[in-house]
From TrEMBL:
<feature type="transmembrane region" description="Helical">
    <location>
        <begin position="159"/>
        <end position="179"/>
    </location>
</feature>
<keyword id="KW-1133">Transmembrane helix</keyword>
<feature type="transmembrane region" description="Helical">
    <location>
        <begin position="20"/>
        <end position="53"/>
    </location>
</feature>
<feature type="transmembrane region" description="Helical">
    <location>
        <begin position="74"/>
        <end position="92"/>
    </location>
</feature>
<keyword id="KW-0472">Membrane</keyword>
<keyword id="KW-0812">Transmembrane</keyword>
<protein>
    <submittedName>
        <fullName>DUF308 domain-containing protein</fullName>
    </submittedName>
</protein>
<feature type="transmembrane region" description="Helical">
    <location>
        <begin position="129"/>
        <end position="147"/>
    </location>
</feature>
<feature type="transmembrane region" description="Helical">
    <location>
        <begin position="98"/>
        <end position="117"/>
    </location>
</feature>
Amino acid sequence: MPFPTPKDAPVNSLRNFYFLRAGVAAVWIALVVMTAPASPAITGALLFLYPAWDAVANLIDSRRNGGLRANPGQAFNALVSVITAVAIAVAFSLRGNAGGVLVFGAWALLAGLFQLAVGIRRRKLGGQAFMMISGVQSALAGIHFIIQSFADAPGIVQLAPYAGFGAVYFLLSGLWLTFRKVQIVR
């Protein structure tokens, strides 16, 4: 197998990043399942951690791809995710699970739209169809969570499939980039 070339670096970096995102989502889901039914403090912490990790992930990704100035969508998404994490903590402390789910839903809607936009922008790198589908699904799930937060707000265990679908999409994108590269090399 030939050695990677410098032109492979963006694809390799993106592939590894997608595997990291899938792994972190899987760990979050495992924590949710292991702690359910969680105490309010654990539930609030896990709700806070999901968008907080998304902020960190967007910073990592933008840094690997030219920085925040070259990636204004990711910079904005990171900022929105930080604000969301703080807002979840506040909303959860004031309104409990319903408040946390409302903010989580609004964030899922916005993050999904940003993910769709980034996927469209990166489509030439490959593996982005999964990211675009994930973005649309995230936006729709966000709308669903918002509506549910005003009725019978779902518990954190019911939010785990949202993260599960995200993990699958990141894994599929990483695998696409892996096998696409092998096919190109041959």
